[in-house]
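Notes to self after the Tuesday call (sharing in case useful).
The group wants a holo model before anyone commits to mutagenesis around the pocket. I volunteered. Ligand is zinc ion. Logging inputs and output together so the record is complete.
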Amino acid sequence: MHKVMIAPRRYVQGAHALKDAGTLVSAIGKKPIILWDETVKGIIGDVLLGSLKDAGLDAATIDFKGDSTREEAARVARVIKESGSDVILAAGGGKTLDTAKAGAADAGVKVVTIPTIASNDSPTSSFTVWYDGDGNCTGFESWGVNPDLVLVDTQVIANGPVAAFVAGMGDALGTWVEADACSQVTAPNLAGGTSTLVAMGIASLCYDVLMEHGVAAKKAVEENTVNESVEQVVEANVLMSGLGFESGGVATAHMVANCLPSFPECHGLMHGHEVGFGVITQLCLDKTFDAEKRNKIVDFEIAIGLPVTFAEIGLEGVDREKLKVIGDICGGEGSLCANHPFEVTSDDVVDAMIAADALGRERKKLAGLA
Ligand SMILES: [Zn+2]
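Result:
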């Protein structure tokens, strides 16, 4: 298997970067169509439409129905085809972006992602995470190409919900931990090959940026301020995390995270919250992982407010039998848990989740938070 790395064609990030949308989009297409919901339209509508208009672009719009289901993606593809658009601008959170990527692949048009929250790494990736109508994750699919442009306005991100920003750090925290596991067994990445040195370097940098700037960035976002820490963490959450997971590979942290939405109790969580707990599970599963570094990662999660216990992910008092549902999927055929240099069984994953909860509670107690 060859080393493969994939990436978006252009990445633009900065405070008020949205004002450049018209110039940037006109280099990609002549007939844009925007996928967004009412809330996002209220936040960026004037600036985005104004910038497109200044560049001579008249944009059509589609109202997003709220979930990245196959039905919604098929509807979006139909509207794109009927409108004769040549580029879709997906503005909002991961589900909007994922639906647009799927619709664009079907309709054969280019893609611009405009994340209004930095809650996960969907903006840069070639993937759509699918959900059913009940909010259960049903799998993920790559379209073979990454977005033509990722446009990140850091002031919009800083004005957004703090919980989403923190969730993004949870998703980004998985990047190095999982790429590192994959590299130990030369496991396939999500780009159709194995990891490059560049992907590993990005994953490692992603981890360092979070550790150095995560807490300060969260404080700044609480005050809707963009500073250097916010800029660096947005780049970690959106760009490094996206490149790192796709071209580095994923393992148990994402496998557990992708299983959690099958429990109705976990439906209030964002993907990055789930990955945050998945990271601790993976670190408890991997008996060779340095204990001090593991504690440091858990303490970081606690410091920025990621959930680290069963109680915090809605599973207080959960028993082994219930966790076995996740264990069986994780220990089963085709699981990402195979991307470790040791065998992983259903019982191992259940044990690791129980150990993760215990560690989370212990570290919270040490931090004086429980
Ligand atoms: Zn993720």
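Two things stood out.
Residues 11-128+140-158 form a domain with the Rossmann fold fold (CATH 3.40.50.1970).
The chain has a mean pLDDT of 96.
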